[in-house]
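Dear Dr. H.,

I hope your travels went smoothly. While you were away I took the liberty of generating a structure for the chain from your last submission, since the lab meeting agenda had it listed for discussion. I wanted you to have the full record in hand beforehand rather than looking at slides cold. The sequence, exactly as received, is reproduced here:
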Amino acid sequence: MPRLSLVIPVYKVQGYLAECLDSVLGQDYTDFEVIAVDDCSPDGSGAILDEYAERDARIHVIHLTENVGLGRARNAGMEKVQGDYVLFLDSDDTLTGGALRAIAERLEAAGDPEILVYDYARSYWDGRVRPNQRAELLQPDGPEAFPLSERPKLLDLLQIVWNKAYRRDFVLRHELTFPPGYYEDAPWTFCSMISAERIAVLNRVCVMYRQRREGGNILKTVSRKHFDVFDQYRRVFDYLDAHPEFAQWRGPLFRKMVDHFLTILDRPDRLPADARAEFFHRASADYRARLPEGFQRPGGGRGHKYALLEKDAYAAMAGATAAVKLRKAVRTRTRTAVNRSKRSAMGVYYQSQLRLPLDENLALFSAYWSRSVSCNPAAIDAELARLAPHVRRVWAVRPDAVDKVPEGVRYVRVGSKEYWAALARAKYLVNNVNFADSVVKREGQIHLQTHHGTPLKTMGLDQRKYPASTDMDFDKLLERCDRWDFSVSSNRFSTAVWERVYPCSYVSLETGYPRNDVLVNGTSDDVRRARAALGLADGARALLYMPTHREYQPGFVPSLDLARLADELGPDVTLLVRGHYFYGGSAHVAELRRSGRIVDVSGHSRVEELYLAADALITDYSSAMFDYAVLDRPVIIYAPDWDIYSAVRGTYFNLLQEAPGAVATSQAELIHLLGSDEYRGPDATARRDAFRRRFCEFDDGRAAERVVRRVFLGETEPLPFVPFAERSHAPAPAQALAAVERA
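The corresponding predicted structure, in token form, is as follows:
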């Protein structure tokens, strides 16, 4: 039997769950088990648990068939524990390094106490870490183990269960379980602490308590569910009534109850406005019903609130609260007026347009900082024209890019009056990056963030760990992301990353990438047209080379000798190169261009057409690999500087180990791969299949339709996905040519 059992309830934490589990499995102490309870989570959390359980036998997963809430999910986990001690860990929190060993050693040193209380720290989304403000209560002072009566101030610690280890026989003997509803920790914590005869403390931070910017804390949700607190303290005092030997704790627990009631009343993010008076009167009734004989109110302002509660004086309490709010509002309005006077860059015209009604049938699109009509927004635009032609579609385009706008596409020049009017009045704003900081998110306006790739490299808040890769203002970034209503995702892996690195209150749309629909639905004619547009002859082999940007290089420095590569591959192979302009001074490279054996496609607006045309993709760390894999054609990873790139930019997985095909780390290896056909052999094919199943799971050719139906048409029932084994994709060039010849 394990020494320690960790119960981890899981619900809507796919962006944080892996970090939580890794913090447990990476401990240097190994005598433990994990009971992970999937509380019928609607996201990918359950699948993540199953993946971890397959890799580590210490993880046992329970999938509940209905959502029962945090307390009852913990109960379900406790029914399965086998360890001497039960610990609880919330699934977005993490253990610190060495925590379990420190806990086990302290338990042994204290002679197996019934409860061990250990320390925690709050970790914030912006990188701040704040220690427990009552950490001094955990300093060693006196015997190794003691009853609560010897250190009663331990009750002043936050009433939580996940900073304690509980001896399992103690839990069973006292029949401790979690009640349903909010604040379920209160009866468990108070009843267990006063019942334990031997408590020990550990003055070491063992848990990092994540403070999420958005979501993750139901206690910050405005709801009548906060009335559950009355039932929870009824359970506490029912326990006292059933155990007269604990009568000494009535006064301290009464104080904890009243403080808790007042905390809920003081917080503006908990009770609906029309429920505050009702809550106050209910709290007042419980106050008077449970007031211990001889109880002394605290002094100062807190004691004044106790007195108002005892007298059921809601009007006086509300009046005092309103006065405080008024003073804050005056200060806020003053700051707002000053800030508004500084925002002259938005212009008087934009301000005037913001006062006009929204145009319910206008959608404004942008892609890549308004440089082109492309990517996911373009695919959504086309599907919107098919399914909802009543919605007018207009693109924001930079003045220096208007000559590249396809014929028939309506556009406005960025910075023009028409542009600001469209930004102010369009019901729908669609972009694969963020709109400018000066854009105001209006009530009723819908912002659709499509993204433009699956992340291998770190993104968003994760880039804080790699300061050499960015000078981003992360506060400004999150203000831009706060405008999102929907975030499109191509796979569960991306969803988990986006929700963690952009912690804002949007809805994730797991639809697949709209721009990849053509890679699934493309025909032989589409493939031949794409090749013909690039001047590729039938039967010629075309390799698409797409290197990515490197932050540690001031400009484009090709890591391939393209001329040598072309010579080695021979005259039957054409290199399509998409990236920054490469060496232009080489006479040999110029000759290769003229011969058609190197085609610079850096300015091509539709990368999907390049994918259709190419027989194989050569890339390093570009997200192109995730899209091209939809075609089930060979992908070659050329990664000569993986160690530098991964150290400077940071990556989410080891590409050399989890590549979508063959890997080369030098040009000689790359030439060998391409010359030996190893890049399309069985090992490369097996790698690609695993990669596709992980990263192309939603790409079945109907992504754009899913997005349009959900965002523009308001349909909430998603289209079912075509089973992975039954999906088609555009034919490879050789297959497309054969199809034409047969016809």
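Two observations you may find useful: The first strand starts at residue 4 and ends at 10. The chain has 27 helices and 22 strands.

With kind regards,
E. W.
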